[in-house]
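User: Fold this; tokens only.

Assistant: Input:
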Amino acid sequence: MDSLLPSLVLLGVLLITASRLGGIGVTAYDDLGQSWRDAVVRSELRLASDLSITSVNAKGTDVDVVVRNDGSVTFDEFSNMDVVVQYSTGTETLTKWLPYTNAAQLNDSWTLLTILDDVTDPGVVNPDESMLMRLCLSPAVGPFTNVNWVQVTNDAGLSAATSFLGGEDAGGCGRSAFYFSLRDDGSVGSLTVANEDIIAWDGDAGFSLTFDGSDVGLGGLQTDALAFIDATHLLMSFTTPASIPGIPGTVDDSDIVKFTASSLGTTTAGSFELYFDGSDVQLNGEGEDVDGLDLLPDGDLLITMSGNFNVTGASGNDSDIIRFTPTQLGDTTAGAWTFYVDGSDVDLTTNGEALNGIAVDDVADIHLTTDGDFSVTGVSGAGEDAFIFTPLTLGADTTGTYAAAVFFDGSAHGIASNAVSSLDLP
């Protein structure tokens, strides 16, 4: 009996172990079976897919590509397509992967202009239909260069490629768009937006949604500062401390986050990370919240504050612009502050003339928006308008002139009861 009991215990352990191993084996078999079925589906999809590039028309920054669906299956997952282009500017050869956008087009991106002969299933490229794509390249394709090449890969992984000749520069994609957010939820033109969204205005082309904040967990927040790094990376700040998806803890209103987009427009997707920790660089006071933002080509940040500020190298109020030169960014931010624009030197002296949007263009003119009504030498407007300052000297002794007309007249587009709360130029 003494020897029988241990044997029974051992037998029980063996049976339990065998049962668990059997369960694991069944699970592994099921997983393997599902993986095999997925692979078969992908293989069948690839076999049913075929595409060809039937024409390329390159005019400097604009490269129009016609891709024909020669297969037997449809495709419409444009954000999952890969577009790679190699081209000569005339002085150098560049290779780029271009992201898809269905909003106002930025440099180094592609968009769908139309589906040719789109008779059935609008918005879907059916068999024997063609899609007209526009590639927006910066710098431009050199005129009459003949070492250019483009490859398009659909969401099934099938590719088509061809070479093309550069033409005279008649393009203009990515050059004229103006990006902004609104203080309050509302509408602009025929577009209804929330104040966490980013809107693009492209003159005669009108308004389009560039960034839908509710798609990426920003519903209920207000975007009050923005700056594009490139076509898929965006800097943002918000009016209140908040929990931002993907960033541990609370993001303060003195912080700046970086959004990396996998798609933009009416279907926005991507991820956030902390780009600038304001508390690391003396932004701790009540008025020391980021309220306007621009990114300079050398990586320095231009920032306006929501109120009075005092940091090493600069002190002032919400009508001033200060410059931050980083030595380190992210969770541990470090760098130095200097004065960039003293607003009181150039007529920005009232409460309504607090700056909340700044963007420097290619010729160093500064595009501005304010919290409320402004009246400076040569031009006046309200919080829904944007105007231009041309500096002669920068720093603690600022001088310059204002353009005689506003750059953007918000009241002409139905937002007189609202205000622009941030802006950027591509």
